[in-house]
Amino acid sequence: MLTTRRRVVATAVLTAGALLLTSCGDSDSGSSGDGKTLKLWHYEGPNSAMGQAWNEAIKEFKATHPGVKVEFEEKGFEQIQKTAPMVLNSSDAPDVMEYLKGNASAGLLSKQGLLTDLTQEAKARGWDKKLSASVRTTSVYDTNGVMGSGKWYGVPNYAEYTMVYYNKDLFKKYGIAEPKTFGELTAAMDKFVQNKITPLANAGAEYPAQQYLYQLALSKADRAWVDSYQLYKGKTDFHDPAWTYAAETFADWVKKGYIAKTSSSTKAEDAGVSFIQGKSPIFFSGSWWYGRFIDEVKFDWGTFLWPDTQLSPGSGGNIWVVPKGAKNKELAYDFIDITMSKKIQNLLGNKGGVPVAADASAITDPKSKTLIDNFNALSQRDGLAFYPDWPVPGYYDVLVSQTQKLITDSEKPDGYLDALQDAYDKGAPKQ
Question: Which of 4, 159, 169, 228 could form a disulfide with 389 if both were Cys (CB 3.0 to 4.6 A apart)?
Fold first, then answer.
């Protein structure tokens, strides 16, 4: 996730690899490396779909690169997000790393000259042909670090989107049908509150809270609204009907007991675990949780897209980037290529991920088919609306702190929207 991942704040163990292809590096590729070590960072949980697929990818890499050592370092999402500019400017930079996509993250690093231009590799290895237009948006950045056009600085080998996870057993226990409309969703939450159950798993100290609010805004928005906010193709007014509805509805949900006031200090992991443990019947979050829920949830559960809206947070997944100072760039390109191979893509899909280049017929797991079908439905209607923290550097922290204030009622919706407007205007490119 964050956005904002995303994103699951678990650390991971990696061990992966596949198909060695002839490499066409950029002008400074592999400049000072020995060609004997691939230094790799990522932050996906070992039982997540990505973690499992990349473990297999490392095995493939080792098999096709005899004598090459893979040095994997466990990192947390927040750790990489906060320290990347400093690390990538040092001699400790990895050869390849997972990084958050979007203007405020990968876009900022590309603008600062910290990432390798992958345009030549993307064309030579066919990555550009494997990614759909909506997924490819976060791979390319212009000279201002704005996504959607320019040079390739990252490669996503999975996609992601947000959805409503729900505990079918708890819904059945209280006689609640799967909501098909927004009205039915709020009625379901009312029923849980009546039975002294807080319906929504939430985390105010990290991304889930702001994604609830952003989804509420998206339910009153259209593609032009998203393009204005995310790509600066118009003026963004945080007191417009969509943002105002979102802030007021979110604050009202706290008052109604849909969201716990105590969730202002909880983290994404806490929210996910509360769903896994059956304490929270509903969790609105990303597909990056899907593989873990398949592995850990013991009750009957399902998912559905947020009702009565065309738009939801989502995009191509976090991206593989090659730091400008990487010592073994050719090895990095080979590893990225392996993660794009059919073998790894099909594995990713069957483990609960959303692959970008799999064979549809190779996805046999029923829950995985549902996950991919819902993504295709969202993607085909041009419904991927990126994440709320993407537009400007540092916006993730602004959204976290301000949304916490809405949860604790230490700020009213008008003041909340004023704060978002101020931070956005300061960070967005001057038009």
Answer: 4
How far apart, in whole angstroms, are the C-alpha atoms of residue 288 and residue 294?
11
**What are 3-23's pLDDT values in tens digits?**
444 433 333 333 333 322 333
**Contact status, residue 351 vs residue 290, Cβ threshold 8 Å:** no
Distance CA(427)–CA(430), nearest Å, equals 9
Task: Identify the pLDDT of residue 431.
Answer: 65
Residue 97: which H helix or E strand, with range?
strand 96-99
**Residue 89: helix, strand or coil by DSSP?**
coil
- Structure confidence by residue, pLDDT tens digits, 109-135: 999 999 999 999 999 999 999 988 888
Query: Which residue carries 């230490």 as its tokens?
Result: 410
Residues 6+ apart with CB under 8 A from 227: 233, 234
Question: What are the residues whose beta carbons fall under 8 Å from the beta carbon of 242, sequence distance 6 or more?
Answer: 217, 218, 220, 221, 225
Q: Give the residues across from 355 on adjacent strands.
A: 158
3 state SS of 78: helix
Alpha-helical (H) ranges within 318-388 are 329-339, 342-350, 366-380
Q: What counts of helices (H) and strands (E) characterise the chain?
A: 18, 12
Please calculate the CA angle 65-55-133 and round it to the nearest 5 degrees: 90
In angstroms, the CA 143 to CA 121 distance is 19
Instruction: Check: pTM over 0.90? Answer yes or no.
Output: no
C-alpha gyration radius of the chain: 21
| CA dihedral (160, 351, 295, 281) positive or negative | positive
* pLDDT > 70 in the chain, percent: 92
